[in-house]
Amino acid sequence: MFFRATLHHTIQLHPQFLGKGIVDTVIQELEKEVEGENIAGVGCIVAVITVPPGGVSMGRVDALTGFVKFRVTYIAVVFRPLQMEVLDAKVQSVSEFGFFAQLGPIEVFVADAHIPDDMDFISDKMIWRNRETGDELAADSIVRLRVLRAKTDVGRTSAVGTIADACLGVIAAE
């Protein structure tokens, strides 16, 4: 799910960047530093929407480095999967214990206990195959899964999912 969040971040700039247009420089540096990053308890920052008026503090010189620190308040679009949310993901690797899929910046593990009972693991091909329909789940397949649990740590968001419910499973094979 995508959310709009008000967040804070500290930017350090070398003194050479001080002068006219400093606020624009701080905002550009903010976008470079935070977009695509995972923040614990928040999720993955997709994009900085805006920095509200007064959102960039007065700079403070770090006596040790000479760099200038700015505290920035900004509004961003954040992606965080919710428990029980149904999403599409691309399978990255398959094993007898389940498979890993990529959901944007998030890695999802689906254990064999959360794969339908009518699917068997074929070890020589490294795929899961449905006995009734012949559908195959392999690396690069697109699956529709339900998020059972998600966790956001600093620098990483991971989740556990299932494809053992109605309307879930392989939706495209590559």
UniProtKB/TrEMBL annotation:
Domain of life: Eukaryota
Stretches assigned to coiled coil: none
Organismal lineage: Eukaryota, Sar, Stramenopiles, Bigyra, Opalozoa
Source organism: Cafeteria roenbergensis
Keyword Transcription: yes
Keywords assigned by UniProt, alphabetized: DNA-directed RNA polymerase, Transcription
Pfam families in UniProt: S1
MF (Gene Ontology): single-stranded DNA binding; single-stranded RNA binding; translation initiation factor binding
Family per similarity comment: Belongs to the eukaryotic RPB7/RPC8 RNA polymerase subunit family.
Principal subcellular localization: nucleus
Family annotation (SUPFAM superfamilies): N-terminal, heterodimerisation domain of RBP7 (RpoE), Nucleic acid-binding proteins
An annotated GO BP: positive regulation of translational initiation
Name under which the protein is recorded: S1 motif domain-containing protein
Subcellular location per the Swiss-Prot or TrEMBL entry: Nucleus
Every S1 motif domain range: 85-156
GO cellular component: P-body; RNA polymerase II, core complex
